[in-house]
Design brief:
This protein has 206 residues and is mainly α. Helices cover 75% and strands 0% of the residues. Among the domains are: 71 residues; 66 residues, Winged helix-like DNA-binding domain superfamily/Winged helix DNA-binding domain (Arc Repressor Mutant, subunit A, Orthogonal Bundle), CATH 1.10.10.10. It is elongated.
Length: 206
């Protein structure tokens, strides 16, 4: 009877964990497996850190490749721009050389002939246009001037040279009213309709 009582007491003294498990031998009653859980957490953290480092390395590699590609494109663009500038310079030199060799001699001979007043005016216009072409070249015209029609370009050029409406009409063999309409259209395209500015002055800057 004593042995049964002692066995019952020992059984009652056994502690049961809240989740129904018995504590590990040698561990205090009521304490869970914190060391094992801590080790598992550290392992997962190491794995996550390794994956993050791998992603960072991959991104750095991609960025390096993109930077290299951009540098190559930049170098190629510089070469294209340099080549374009050289081509433009060659074209300008060619135009100026042709004007001097092929046009200027005949223009000088024409000026020495017997020309009436209107013919002399036309020759003067041609010479001024050629001089302007060889100095500034056509590529420096603004986008607003490019929007003009061929007839408006002719009239704008004569206005730029200081010709009045009546003179322009005589040179182009048009009526003064037609020239006035062209002048209004030129002012409109140059956004000068409601501005009190001299058309000749504006055209000289274009």
């Amino acid at each position: 009877m004593r042995d049964c009582g002692r066995s019952s007491q020992e059984s009652d003294m056994k502690t049961v964990m809240p989740d129904g498990r018995s504590p590990r031998p040698g561990s205090p009653a009521g304490l869970d497996d914190k060391p094992e859980q801590s080790a598992g957490t550290e392992s997962r953290a190491d794995q996550d850190g390794g994956q993050a480092a791998a992603r960072v390395s991959e991104l750095e590699l991609r960025l390096g490749e993109q930077a290299s590609e951009l540098e190559e494109l930049r170098a190629a663009l510089k070469v294209l721009i340099r080549s374009r500038d050289e081509d433009r310079s060659d074209l300008e030199r060619c135009v100026m050389a042709n004007v001097d060799k092929l046009i200027e001699p005949f223009l000088s001979r024409l000026e020495k002939t017997r020309l009436n007043e209107q013919q002399q005016s036309l020759v003067g216009i041609i010479r001024k246009n050629l001089d302007e072409l060889t100095v500034t070249f056509a590529g420096k015209c603004s986008a607003r001037v490019d929007s003009l029609t061929p007839a408006e370009v002719q009239i704008a050029n004569l206005i730029k040279l200081g010709k009045r409406t009546k003179e322009i009409a005589q040179i182009l063999r048009l009526s003064p009213g037609t020239i006035s309409i062209h002048r209004k259209n030129i002012r409109k395209k140059l956004e000068l309709t409601h501005r009190k500015v001299n058309l000749q002055t504006v055209l000289s800057r274009e």
